[in-house]
Amino acid sequence: MSFPYVTDVINALFGTHWHVPLPTFGIIVAIAIVVATCVATRLVRKHEEVGKLPPQSHTFVTDMVLVSVLAGIVGARIFDILDNLDRFLASPMSMIFTRAGFSIYGGLCFGIVAGVIFVKRRSVPVIPMLDATAPALMLGYGIGRLGCQIAGDGDWGIAANMLLKPSWLPGWLWAQTYDGNIAGVMISAPGVYPTPIYEMMMALAIFCVLWRLRLQDHRAGYLFSTYLLLAGFERLLIEKIRINTRYDLFGAHLTQAEAISFLLVVAGLVGVLTTLHRKRFWTRVIVGAGVLSALSACAPH
Asked: Which end of the chain is less enclosed by CB atoms within 10 A, N or C?
């Protein structure tokens, strides 16, 4: 079941029949932004205390987030249009003003670029600021995916294969029909993979990893590089069970998200190789490769 509006949740809980056009997705995204901003401000303060960032850098965080969010909204819509050009050409206005179908990677790319430009204009070191805000970025992403799940905005997966479902796993965690979703799509039983839930759980797990790593002494750029690496792998895994337009890129059939994820993984790996101390590198590579191989093997196809 989906709840596009806040009153849908209230009606389901209390049996009322109210209708106020207050979207649950927007409310949850707003919560994600506020929480991420608070966490980022705290982490920037910590970087100031150890001399990695100039004093008062935290005073720019709220403005930086606002600029990034506005740019992210534009980027999310642009990337979604590029991913659905046929629909856009058929009905441009309906895609521009729809409340569904935003591309998270479009928002991420535009938002980070806008944030970097803002920080540079305030004469704050960019790389330490990216390190400081990396955990907050992942936390905000995870909370935002909860909004996708509740509203049913179309970010679900392919038809679920019930034969592969473990007996101990609750049915709702394997397949959902998203009845009443905001995208207006009818999904046949047993349903599709609830990929927003999977992404939310992986994002929160990555946030915990980044939160732990921040306590260690690393060269500037390591934490943000790790964020790029893990975020890219997370999306590559989830794309295995998501429906998206595929493009022929040098003989490989990739979705827009897979292509961008691959670039994030490469950028993150280069950054980690550049910043990580050599004596710890191979141990972490072996452990990381084992974890990723296990996740790939367990992910449903």
From this structure: C
- Classified as helix, coil or strand, 36 is helix
Nearest to 58 by CA among 39, 71, 32, 35: 39
d(CA 164, CA 96): 38
d(CA 120, CA 208): 28
| 163, part of any domain | no
> Which among 294, 300, 293 has a CA at the least distance from the CA of 240?
300
Residue 266 lies in a domain: yes
CA distance 114 to 132: 17
Closest by CA position to 282, among listed 268, 292, 272: 272
User: What's the whole-model pTM score?
Assistant: 0.85
pLDDT in tens, 57-94: 999 999 999 999 999 888 888 877 777 777 767 777 76
pLDDT at 289: 53
DSSP 3-state percent helix, strand, coil across the chain (nearest 5): 65, 5, 30
Could you list the residue range(s) of the whole structural domain that residue 12 is in?
A: 6-157+179-298
Start-to-end Cα distance in the chain: 24
Q: What would the DSSP string read from start to end of 245-289?
A: -EEEETTEEEEHHHHHHHHHHHHHHHHHHHHS-HHHHHHHHHHHH
141: nearest Cα among 194, 198, 199: 199
Q: How many CA atoms lie within 13 A of 87 on its CB side?
A: 11
Distance CA 24, CA 69 (A): 18
H-helix or E-strand containing 255? strand 252-255
Rounded average pLDDT over 46-58: 93
- What is the pLDDT at residue 96? 64
Asked, for residue 173, whether it belongs to a domain, the answer is: no
Q: pLDDT at residue 290 above 60?
A: no
